[in-house]
Amino acid sequence: MRTLRTILATGLTAVVAVGLAACGGSSQNGGSNGSGSDSSGAVTLKVGATPAPHAKILTYINDNLAAGAGIKLDIVEYTDYNQPNRALNDGELDANFFQTVPYLENAEREFDYDFTAGAGIHLEPLAVFSNKHKSLSELPDGGTIAVISDASNQTRALELLAKQGLVQLPADGSEASVVNVTPLKNFTFKEVEGPQLVRSLDDFDFAVINGNFAQEGGLNIADQALVVESPENNPAVNVLVWKTANDKQEAIDKLEQLLHSDEVKQYIEQTWTDGSVIPAF
C-alpha cells in the first residue's frame, strides 16, 4: 500500500515530469493507457468523486485542460463515502478523488486495499456551526454537539474541540473517538453521517462540519463558522487515489499533474472564496 507519505518521499516532481513527457499524445507502448481511448486518441479515465468540491474540480479540468493532455474524464459522482474505494478496488473506476489521507489509511487498514495516492491537492477545513448560539461558550448544560461518524474526520473534529477546551484527548495518544475522549463539560455527542450534518443542524447546539459538506449545504465558513480548523501542517489533505496495479498509469499521471496545475489552484481560490476549500500546493 502506497499512500501520500511514500509518494511525497519521491516527490511530485517525478509525477509532473512523467505527465509533461506524455502530453504530446497517448502512448502505444505496453498498453499503459489500457483500451479506454476515444476516436480522438484521448484516453478516458473513469474517476469517482463526491459532488463538491471534487467533481466540480474534475469537471473544470475536463472542460478546460484534459484535451490538451490527451485524456478525457468520465466523472461518476457518489454521496456515500463507502462506495468510491469499493468501486476502485472492484475495477469499476480507474481512480477516485474524494478522500483525505487519514481516511484512506483507515480504509487500507480495514480492507487491505492496494492503492496509491498522489500528493495533496486541497484541504477542506472543519468548522463549528450553530443555528442556536453565537459562541461555543454558550454551550448549555446537557447540550449536544454533532460530529461526523467516519473515524478519521471524527478524530479531526475532536481535536478541534479539544483546542477549545471542551474535551480531553486520550492520554495514550490513540486515535480520538467519541468513546475515548473525556468531555470537560456536561454535554453529549451525536454521530451523524457527513452529508446529514448541515440538514440536521437545528437538532443540535453545535455541529463540527467538513468544509465540503458546509458549502454543499449553503453554509459560509467566512461568515458563519464559530471556529475553523487551522490549515497549517494539517495532514488531512485530499488526494487522487488509484490501484497500484493498473493499465492506465500514464493517463493517471497526466491527471495528477493537472490537479496540481496553476490553473486548478487559481480555480479553487476563485471558486471557494469563503475558505471552505484551500489549495494544498
UniProtKB/TrEMBL annotation:
Family annotation (PROSITE patterns): PROKAR_LIPOPROTEIN (PS51257)
Domain of life from the UniProt record: Bacteria
Subcellular location: Membrane
UniProt keywords, alphabetically: Lipoprotein, Membrane, Palmitate, Signal
Annotated Gene Ontology cellular component terms: membrane
Principal place of residence: membrane
Membrane-related topology note: Lipid-anchor
First and last residue of the signal peptide: 1-21
Family statement: Belongs to the nlpA lipoprotein family.
Name under which the protein is recorded: Lipoprotein
